Sequence to fold (489 residues):
Amino acid sequence: MLYQSTRNKDLTAGSIDAVLTGLAPDGGLYIADPAALSFDWKAALNMDPVEMSAAILSALLPEYEDMKALAEDSYRGKFTAEDLTPLVKVKDRYVLELFHGPTSAFKDVALSVLPRLVTAGRAQKGSEGDVVILTATSGDTGKAALEGFHDVPGTGIMVFFPYKGTSPIQELQMTSQAGGNVKVCAVKGNFDDVQTAVKKIFAKASDMDLSGQTLNSANSINIGRLAPQVMYYFKAYADLVKEGRIKTGDPVHFSVPTGNFGDILAGYFAKLLGLPVGRLICASNINNILTDFIETGVYDKRREFYKTTSPSMDILVSSNLERLLWLLCKDEAKVSRWMKELSENGIYTVDEEVREALAESFDCGYADDEKAKAFIGKVFRETGYLMDPHTAVGWAVSEDFMEKTQGAPVVVLSTASPFKFPKACLEALGQEPSEGEFAQLDALEKASGINAPQNLAALKTAQVRFTDVITPEEMEGYVTAFLKERSEK
Ligand SMILES: *Cc1c(COP(=O)(O)O)cnc(C)c1O
Fold:
């Protein structure tokens, strides 16, 4: 299976090169049509989650020689749930818990695998020199990438986060990171400033002195971040067959709290591989640009940006939507034109063909903070099940969908542990949160009767290792200094 740029079908790459380079040279994203594969999706349903992951990854990234060992190495013993992503029945719905990895966020599912795809790919290609991951984060990706890459031989990782721009727990998760190959630094500015500076460094990397090393990204523009996320759609489906809720072949609907459109696109990949996915419900918070887009075909980012209690979904340009557009029309000229219009004018309108194709698979909706909060409280009071604010957006949006299910189960993807967002959860349970996130964490344990994940509770006594604060202009020099220091070790 050959990958190509979403913007030019002549820019192709094998699956390993697609992972190792991240972005196509023309700025497009690497894509191939999963529907073109003959994948035995029914056989995959009988596998355990790690084998299932290996089978799907082998199909999507066929150049890798030993995906089984790679998946074992990525997951076995690394998650607190034996079956990686448990499916929990809550009232009339199912919640697919994706947060049992090392940092209690769903990004662990992919970032446990990506480092191994990078190192195995480089070994297979005989690449020389270390690869250093450069990441800008608004909170969750940075920590999950650090956990994935720390002490992985042949790699280094640098994470930049906005100074005072993350939650105190998220900051401490990063600044206390262990490992001999890691660097974490705060940058004065907001997330966009940090992200823009990182992109600039990537753009000029070929002219920089990298001391014999290569730079790569851990963001979901990399197909190696996206491919591992397909597994849990299969896993949820297999669980529903096992418990007798459905028969193999029946449809299942999924409601997905969406930001960069990676998680939900993985669901579409699952569908293209043959899994009987019913509707994919794209759930947004008040930054509801995707709701408008799916309803009208107009993508208009010229709008106010809101900070919400579901910060990982506060995003106006969803990178992976570009991959979906290509999958829906297979027309590079059109995709290029829309992306150009987006960057030049901040708006584009897709044609009727794409609108119809979108409507065939996707539903959409949004929930503001008040609505999400109301559902955290209601579901907890009725069932004792506690959702985080991102999950609550997925739940709230699926509420209106329940009368349209035609008997098929609805799975709400749960993307974070509620203990990552203790303040919002306490408020939803009707409690007055006290000052300080650790006090809130304790209070949430008491109020809910649920224990916080060990990795979060352990932060109370964590030692801060990284205290640097720099400006965006200083980042390039900071990167080259780190690379030089590594090369001299
Ligand atoms: C990243 C993230 C999302 C959004 O996922 P996308 O793949 O970017 O759409 C939702 N919830 C949480 C908690 C996240 O960390």
Observations:
- The chain has a mean pLDDT of 95.
- The pocket of pyridoxal-5'-phosphate is lined by residues 105-107, 140, 220, 257-263, 312-313, 390, 415-416 (CB under 6 Å).
- The first helix runs from residue 15 to 21.
- The first strand starts at residue 3 and ends at 5.
